[in-house]
Amino acid sequence: MTNFLLSRCFSKNKSLLSMRFLHLLLLVAGIFVAGNGKAQLYWNNNTTPANLTSANWGTLPGGPFTTAWTGGSNIVFTANSTVQCTAAPVVGNVTVTGGNVAWTGFGNYSTSAAIRTMDIAGGSTLTWTGQAVTVVAGTGFNKTGAGTWNLGTLQSNYPGGFTLGAGIVLFAGNTNAFGTGALTINGGVIGNNSGGLRTISNSAINIGGNFQLGTATGASNISFVGNINLGAATRTITIGSAAIDTLRGIISGGAGSGLTIASISTGRIVLGNSGNIYSGATTINSGLLYAGIANSLPATTALVFANTAGAQFLLNNFNTTVGSIAGGGVTGGNIVLGSGALSTGGANSNTSYGGVISGTGSFTKTGTGVQTLTGANTYSGTTSVNAGTVLVNGSTSSLSAVTVASGATLGGNGTVAGTVSNNGTLSPGSGPSSVDTINTGATTFGANSTYLCEVSNVAGTPGVGWDFINSSGAINVTASPITITLTNLVGSGFNVNNAYTWIIATGTSVVNFNALNFVIDRSTFPVGGIFTVEQSGNSLQIVFTPPSGNSITLDPPTQLSGASFCNGAINNTITLT
Questions:
Q1: For the chain, which terminus, N or C, has the lower number of CB atoms within 10 Å?
Q2: Counting Cβ atoms within 10 Å, is residue 563 exposed (0-12), middle (13-18) or buried (19+)?
């Protein structure tokens, strides 16, 4: 059509074709090709209520507004308008460039089995009241623009899906407010303004971008029941109201998929499925993330916190397993157990967590990695170091009894205020080659347990020159064997010809000391002299005795039997048997 009109004008008189005329001609031609190839009509902006199908349209933004309705037209509202939709008219794409549009429906809205775009400019609102939508196959909607589309109480089984690309969508209908097809969220805001809980039951929910749940005018609770696909990226959900929004479907995604929570309000997001399988991290930058069921996070996820006030993960009394925990600090990024049990470490990574773990629940470390805790933790349940290493450079509560399994290690330079039952390795210090003091409650060394004691300065003091255990209770050394592994660090100043005494542990008492219960591993020290363990009051100490000038040193000490020590009595030899 456009090419035909242009060619006719050029063939009659090219000189009459001014730039202004060309512009007008192209504008008129554009009426017929806008959006979906249908005519584009402009609503009369005199604010007088009228029926959608009445002759209240214009072919240009400024009118005149006497054009009859054409089914399937794309329509534009440029100012405050009131429109009534009766019967079942076929409507094309809808654009609101300015003002607010009050749309009252008395019949079905038909897209003629197509996906229609609702493009609403920022600052404008399209409000549907009582509008229904036909359920013909292919029917669906695409919301664009920074403005607001208020669906009202719409509930419809239209199957073509709903895509939110930008702006705000408010709804008050239940179950099928967004039809029955896939709900795709590429951006924007979804808010429930019904005043009560509403369920979104789309067959699938595809997340293609970051979005917000809830606004000041859409602050009621939402429950999403469909499975959620994050794609192959980390998606951020921002809490925008005081609502409780629950994700009940399985959250999945491709390689690199992850979930980030942020907040600009006081609401919360609840994870309500134990089968979530997205592959990446779960990050809480701000706001509240709740467990709504046991193991609501993927067992391999890295749970990461910003050091932000109010950023929390709440187990809500449900047991939860994660791959690792990291982040947080003195400002925020906390974990609230309730009575739930938190298990971490399956990712076999080395991470540091600085927030506070609170509640009556328990904490368990698994995996081969190192988990460092730098916060002032207050949880009162047990602490189980089942594998790998836990470094407490902050503190744990005196109510939390700590058990270290065989093959696992407890260390740090903080305070483990509860009782410690060591069946693995106790190693003071904030890391390898770090000489320090660890403060503990009453401490018991089990059979085949180890105390790893590093020495950096033989002339120093406990906790400065060598590792030191400062116990607020008794130190029980009844079991046997107990290995003390002495590690000679570079620059310690150790001289095999000098005697040394190093106090390595002090408590309120030492229970059942017996030097024969101890095995000393001195393999990193030079050969010569003898290391022994002694009790001195309420302390354990390592004593090194250098070799004498005419002695033979056996290390470790060996029981001698049938030996003759005499000057030349037996051919000037010493015989050991």
A1: C
A2: exposed
Given a contact cutoff of 8 angstroms between Cβ atoms, the answer to whether 138 and 113 are in contact is: yes
Phi, psi for 141 (deg, rounded to 5): -140, 150
pTM score = 0.89
Sign, CA dihedral 526-531-537-540, equals positive
| Distance separating alpha carbons of residues 220 and 214, to the nearest angstrom | 8
CB 453 within 8 Å of CB 467: yes
Residue type, 79: A
Cis peptide before 49 (omega within 30 of 0): no
Report d(CA 48, CA 218) in Å as an integer.
29
| H/E stretch holding 30 | helix 19-30
Per-residue pLDDT of the chain (577 residues; tens, 9 = 90+): 334 333 433 334 443 334 343 333 333 444 444 445 668 999 998 778 999 999 999 999 999 999 999 999 999 999 999 999 887 889 999 999 999 999 998 888 999 999 999 999 999 999 999 999 999 999 999 999 999 999 999 999 999 999 999 999 999 998 899 999 999 999 999 999 999 999 999 989 999 999 999 999 999 999 999 999 999 999 999 999 999 999 999 999 999 999 999 999 999 999 999 999 999 999 999 999 999 999 999 999 999 999 999 999 999 999 999 999 999 999 999 999 999 999 999 999 999 999 999 999 999 999 999 999 999 999 999 999 999 999 999 999 999 999 999 999 999 999 999 999 999 999 999 988 899 999 999 999 999 999 999 999 999 999 999 999 999 999 999 999 999 999 999 999 999 999 999 999 999 999 999 999 999 999 999 999 999 999 999 999 999 999 986 555 444 444 444 333 334 333 333 434 3
What stretches of 113-229 adopt beta strand conformation (E)? 115-120, 125-129, 132-133, 140-144, 148-150, 162-164, 168-171, 183-185, 189-192, 198-200, 204-207, 211-213, 222-224, 227-229
Q: Give the tokens for residue 423.
A: 């069946």
CA 74, CA 79: separation in Å to the nearest integer? 16
Tokens of 569: 């009595």
CB 313 within 8 A of CB 362: no
3-state helix, strand, coil in the chain (%, to 5): 5, 40, 55
Crossing angle of helices 2-12 and 19-30, in 10° steps, is 150
Q: Say how far apart CA 112 and CA 135 lie, in whole Å.
A: 10
Query: Which residues does 383 contact at the CB level (< 8 Å), separation at least 6?
Result: 362, 363, 364, 390, 396, 400, 401, 402, 403, 416, 418
Output the six-digit token pair for 529.
Answer: 């002299």
Query: Can you give the length of the chain in residues?
Result: 577
> To which residue do tokens 């590792």 refer?
467
- CA 422-423-427 angle, 5° bins: 55
- Token output for 292: 């709504």
Contact between residue 457 and residue 492 where contact means Cβ atoms under 8 Å apart: yes
Element (H, E) at 22: helix 19-30
User: What element of type H or E holds 8?
Assistant: helix 2-12
